[in-house]
C-alpha cells in the first residue's frame, strides 16, 4: 500500500492513525501542499486524485481518496480491529460524530479555504483568526455535548473508533491555531487518553518524514 499525504494535513493524519491501528504496512509518499505552488496541483498527482487534495491511498489496483472513505475501505477489506465497532446504532453515532468534524469543521478551516480568504478576499490575519475561532467554537461546542452523551474511555463508549481518529487531528489543528479549549473538558479528557495510544502517537505530524522543524 501507498499513502500520499502531507505531514500537517488533518485528513492525512486520520489515514495514518487508521493504518497504524490496523497494523497495516504502507509506503508514505509526501505531497508538499506549499512548495512550488503546491505539489497536489501537479499533473501527475491530479491524475491520481482529481480533487487535488490529500490523502490518497493506493492498494494494488484500488485508488481511494477522502479520509473517511479510506477508513471505511480499510475496515471492509481488513476487518480487525474495527474502526466502526458495535451494532448499527452505535456505528451510526460513530459516523455522525466523525462527520461532525471531518465534513462540517474541517472544510471551513483547511488550507485552500485559508488561502482563498487571504489571496482572493484579501482578509486580514486578524479576520482570518476570527474566522477560525468562530468555526472551532461552533463545532467543538456541539461536539462536547455529543461527548457528554456518548463518551466512555473514548468518543463513543469504551472502544476506539473512527470518531476518535477524527478528533485527534482537529485538536492538533486547534492547538496550532491557538484555540482556547478550556470550555471543552470532556473533549480534552478524551483527547488526553487518545494522544497516549501508540498508534496515535506514531501518526503525529512531527514524526512524519516530511515534517518541517
- Largest sheet: spatial strand order: 2-1-3-4
- The amount of beta strand, in percent, is 5-15%
The beta-strand count equals: 4
Largest sheet: 4 strands, mixed
Mean pLDDT: 96
Class derived from helix and strand content: alpha+beta
Order of helices and strands: EHEHEEHHHHHHH
* Helix segment tally: 9
Secondary structure elements and their pairing?
Blueprint: E1 2-5, H1 10-21, E2 27-30, H2 43-48, E3 56-59, E4 62-65, H3 67-77, H4 88-109, H5 111-119, H6 125-150, H7 162-176, H8 185-195, H9 198-201
Parallel strand pairs: 1-2
Antiparallel strand pairs: 1-3, 3-4
Helix pairs in contact: 1-3, 1-7, 4-6, 4-7
Short structural summary:
The chain is α+β, with helices and mostly antiparallel strands and 213 residues long. It has helices at residues 10-21, 43-48, 67-77, 88-109, 111-119, 125-150, 162-176, 185-195, 198-201; strands at residues 2-5, 27-30, 56-59, 62-65. A 4-stranded mixed sheet has the order 2-1-3-4, with helices on one face.
Can you walk me through this structure?
By secondary structure, the chain is an alpha+beta fold. 54% of the residues lie in helices and 8% in strands. It contains 9 helices and 4 strands. The chain has helices spanning 10-21, 43-48, 67-77, 88-109, 111-119, 125-150, 162-176, 185-195, 198-201, and strands at residues 2-5, 27-30, 56-59, 62-65. The protein has a 4-stranded mixed beta sheet, covered by helices on one side. Helix 1 runs parallel beside helix 3, helix 1 packs antiparallel against helix 7 and helix 4 (88-109) packs parallel to helix 7. The longest helix has 26 residues, at 125-150. The protein is globular.
Amino acid at each position: 500500500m501507498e499513502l500520499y499525504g502531507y505531514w500537517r494535513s488533518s485528513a492525512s493524519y486520520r489515514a495514518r492513525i487508521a493504518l497504524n491501528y490496523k497494523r497495516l504496512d504502507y509506503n508514505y509518499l509526501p505531497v508538499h501542499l506549499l512548495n512550488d505552488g503546491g505539489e497536489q496541483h501537479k499533473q501527475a498527482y491530479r491524475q491520481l486524485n482529481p480533487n487535488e487534495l490529500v490523502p490518497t491511498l493506493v492498494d494494488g489496483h484500488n485508488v481511494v481518496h477522502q479520509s473517511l472513505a479510506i477508513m471505511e475501505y480499510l475496515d471492509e477489506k481488513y476487518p480487525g480491529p474495527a474502526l466502526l465497532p458495535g451494532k448499527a446504532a452505535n456505528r451510526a453515532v460513530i459516523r455522525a460524530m466523525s462527520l461532525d468534524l471531518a465534513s462540517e469543521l474541517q472544510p471551513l478551516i483547511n488550507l485552500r479555504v485559508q488561502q482563498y480568504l487571504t489571496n482572493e478576499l484579501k482578509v486580514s490575519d486578524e479576520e482570518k483568526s476570527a474566522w477560525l475561532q468562530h468555526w472551532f467554537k461552533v463545532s467543538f461546542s456541539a461536539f462536547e455535548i455529543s461527548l457528554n452523551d456518548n463518551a466512555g474511555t473514548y468518543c463513543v463508549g469504551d472502544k476506539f473508533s473512527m470518531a476518535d481518529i477524527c478528533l485527534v487531528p482537529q485538536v492538533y489543528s486547534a492547538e496550532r491555531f491557538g484555540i482556547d479549549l478550556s470550555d471543552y473538558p470532556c473533549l480534552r479528557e478524551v483527547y488526553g487518553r487518545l494522544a497516549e495510544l501508540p498508534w496515535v502517537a506514531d501518526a503525529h505530524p512531527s514524526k512524519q518524514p516530511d515534517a518541517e522543524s
